[in-house]
Structure formats: C-alpha cells, structure tokens
Amino acid sequence: MSLLSINLRHLAFAAVLTLPLLSAPVLHAFAQAAEDEDQDQEIARQALENKEILPLSAVLAKVEGKVTGDIVEIELERKKGQWVYEIEVIGEDGRVRDVDVDAKTGEVINVAFDE
Q: Dihedral, CA atoms, 70, 75, 78, 80, nearest 10 degrees?
C-alpha cells in the first residue's frame, strides 16, 4: 500500500468523523427556524381570534386598488404595540414597494420604495 492511499484513507476517515459535527449547527438552525415559525403562526392565530387583527383576505381586499402590482411577500409584525401587515409589492414599473397596513383596520399606514 502506498503512502498516498494511506493518507487518503486517513483523510476520508477524518471527513466521516467531522461531517456530523459540522452539520449539527445547521440542522439545529433549521429546527429552531421551524419552531419559531410554529410560534409565529400561533401568535397570529391568537391575535385573529382576539380580534386584534383582520384576516389577511380582508386586508388584501381593502388594499386592492390602493396599491397595484404583484405581491411577493407578506409578514405580520408588531411595531410600537400595533399589528402591521408588511406587504412587499413589485409595481408595474418594476419598482419594489414596502406597504405597511394596519392589521386591525386594513388601512394603509405607509408606502416606501426600496432603493
């Protein structure tokens, strides 16, 4: 057996031993993100049940016509004690708009263009 084949076997053995150690933090991060998403969904469900927010479909119906374009992302956030739907829209002009909507009333609070 040559020295090269012995070194390659040692290298392969070391890789097999270290791969699980390197992937553990990544797997933990995915698990934590899934848990956080479950918690976020539960918080949003409770806010809806407590009538702190409108259903997303009602908010989108109120916003339709005030903001035109394709919706690419929606998040529900708490800002200064107020529930806000953050809606990211790509307009017909290709510009990205961040639209903040009061989640309780469905009224547009702010429209800002991404730079």
A: -30
- Give this prediction's pTM: 0.66
- The DSSP secondary structure of 75-99, one letter per residue, reads EEEEETTEEEEEEEEE-TTS-EEEE
Burial class (CB in 10 A: 0-12, 13-18, 19+), 104: middle
For 1, the token pair is 């057996």
> For residue range 44-91, what is the model confidence (pLDDT) as tens digits?
899 999 999 999 999 999 988 888 899 999 999 999 999 999 999 999
Nearest to 45 by CA among 83, 99, 71, 88: 83
Rounded-to-integer distance, Cα 106 and Cα 35, Å: 29
Place of tokens 């040559």: 2
SS3 104: coil
pLDDT of 16 > 70? The answer is no
